[in-house]
């Protein structure tokens, strides 16, 4: 793996989509076709992973078993790696992904109470140990994030948005545990600030990772 692999993570309502869009707008002129933007579940150029995304996020399937959900995420991730991430990294490109395996560890391991260690094992198997160069984590209290969703979100509301506050608290706790375990990888950004400040802080944190000078 010779390229740079950056992932964006955060609880629901952290403003991840808005921050990511702004960062990509700044990077695009600098990197041109060396920049690959993708997301999980699913992924750019991966129809199999996208089909699994449609299934796992379907709000009409509330009875989906928690382990089934976890395994589907891992399967989608594997296909995403094979189709999109690894080929781009082999060409020394910068890959930015909206979510990666930390999401499964936090949401299924923590939120679904399946166990952080068990979900980590499943996803390490699925990814063959491929980890991001850096992970931007947009940190926000669950109650603040959920309030933002209720007040502002206009796009899709999926199965994860309608979970109880306790679910989202477990997700946040798992993310914090991951950040403590890998402080060299996690770039923690206070997402409760105004959007412009969050974008600025994220850009500043990424500059040395990407070799960009102010």
Automatic annotation (TrEMBL):
<protein>
    <recommendedName>
        <fullName>Thymidylate kinase</fullName>
        <ecNumber>2.7.4.9</ecNumber>
    </recommendedName>
</protein>
<dbReference type="InterPro" id="IPR039430">
    <property type="entry name" value="Thymidylate_kin-like_dom"/>
</dbReference>
<comment type="similarity">
    <text>Belongs to the thymidylate kinase family.</text>
</comment>
<dbReference type="Pfam" id="PF02223">
    <property type="entry name" value="Thymidylate_kin"/>
</dbReference>
<dbReference type="InterPro" id="IPR027417">
    <property type="entry name" value="P-loop_NTPase"/>
</dbReference>
<feature type="binding site">
    <location>
        <begin position="10"/>
        <end position="17"/>
    </location>
    <ligand>
        <name>ATP</name>
    </ligand>
</feature>
<dbReference type="GO" id="GO:0004798">
    <property type="term" value="F:dTMP kinase activity"/>
</dbReference>
<dbReference type="GO" id="GO:0006233">
    <property type="term" value="P:dTDP biosynthetic process"/>
</dbReference>
<dbReference type="GO" id="GO:0006227">
    <property type="term" value="P:dUDP biosynthetic process"/>
</dbReference>
<feature type="domain" description="Thymidylate kinase-like">
    <location>
        <begin position="8"/>
        <end position="198"/>
    </location>
</feature>
<keyword id="KW-0547">Nucleotide-binding</keyword>
<keyword id="KW-0808">Transferase</keyword>
<keyword id="KW-0418">Kinase</keyword>
<dbReference type="GO" id="GO:0005524">
    <property type="term" value="F:ATP binding"/>
</dbReference>
<keyword id="KW-0545">Nucleotide biosynthesis</keyword>
<dbReference type="InterPro" id="IPR018095">
    <property type="entry name" value="Thymidylate_kin_CS"/>
</dbReference>
<dbReference type="GO" id="GO:0005829">
    <property type="term" value="C:cytosol"/>
</dbReference>
<comment type="function">
    <text>Phosphorylation of dTMP to form dTDP in both de novo and salvage pathways of dTTP synthesis.</text>
</comment>
<dbReference type="GO" id="GO:0006235">
    <property type="term" value="P:dTTP biosynthetic process"/>
</dbReference>
<keyword id="KW-0067">ATP-binding</keyword>
<dbReference type="InterPro" id="IPR018094">
    <property type="entry name" value="Thymidylate_kinase"/>
</dbReference>
